[in-house]
């Protein structure tokens, strides 16, 4: 029975490269001279920490980071922006979360979209992924197209395709 897995994974190598390039650009830009603007990546916590001298510069740091993500092919929908906090003096910090894996709400939405589609396929939640199976490859390809169109809040990948 043909099947595939619907997952949401991050390419940590590209994320690390994008953060390094963004920090390098921030260090060389004239408008950041003498400021404490930087980006820190905490892979284990799946977190990005953005530091800047004020709200405006924090927005510029964010713009630089998003541009580097786009250039490296990392989908920016995987970033969940946090609240801006004031830390000592005028300095500000923001903690962004990187979304990896399908949480239970999104997995349920994927299964609901598949059931409502009237295709002869079934979806089952398996941890942080959804296994989609059906009798025909054509139905599975139609399911992939449907999920790409319907699920927009987080990037999806389709792997482990089996006949």
Describe the 3D structure:
This protein has 163 residues and is α+β, with helices and mostly antiparallel strands. It contains four helices and nine strands, in the order E-H-E-E-H-E-E-E-H-E-E-H-E. The strands form two sheets. Strands 2, 3, 4, 5 and 6 form a five-stranded antiparallel beta sheet that branches. It has a four-stranded antiparallel beta sheet with strand order 7-8-1-9, with helices on one face. Helix 1 crosses helix 2 (55-72). It is elongated, with a radius of gyration of 20 Å. The model has no long low-confidence stretch (mean pLDDT 93).
Write the layout of secondary structure elements.
Layout: E1 3-7, H1 12-28, E2 38-42, E3 47-52, H2 55-72, E4 79-80, E5 84-86, E6 92-98, H3 104-116, E7 121-126, E8 129-134, H4 137-150, E9 157-162
Antiparallel strand pairs: 1-8, 1-9, 2-3, 3-6, 4-6, 5-6, 7-8
Helix pairs in contact: 1-2
């Amino acid at each position: 029975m043909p099947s595939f897995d619907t997952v949401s994974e991050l390419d940590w190598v590209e994320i690390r490269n994008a953060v390094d390039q963004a920090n390098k650009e921030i260090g060389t830009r004239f408008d950041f001279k003498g400021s404490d603007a930087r980006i820190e990546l905490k892979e284990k916590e799946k977190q990005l920490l953005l530091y800047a001298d004020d709200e405006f510069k924090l927005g510029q740091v964010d713009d630089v980071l998003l541009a580097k993500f786009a250039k490296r092919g990392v989908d920016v929908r995987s970033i969940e922006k946090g609240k801006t906090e004031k830390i000592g003096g005028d300095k500000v910090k923001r903690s962004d979360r990187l979304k990896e894996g399908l949480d239970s709400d999104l997995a349920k939405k994927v299964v609901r979209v598949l059931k409502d589609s009237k295709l002869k396929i079934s979806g089952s939640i398996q941890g942080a992924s959804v296994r989609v199976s059906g009798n025909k490859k054509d139905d599975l390809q139609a399911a992939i197209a449907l999920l790409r169109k319907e699920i927009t809040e987080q990037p999806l990948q389709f792997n482990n395709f089996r006949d």
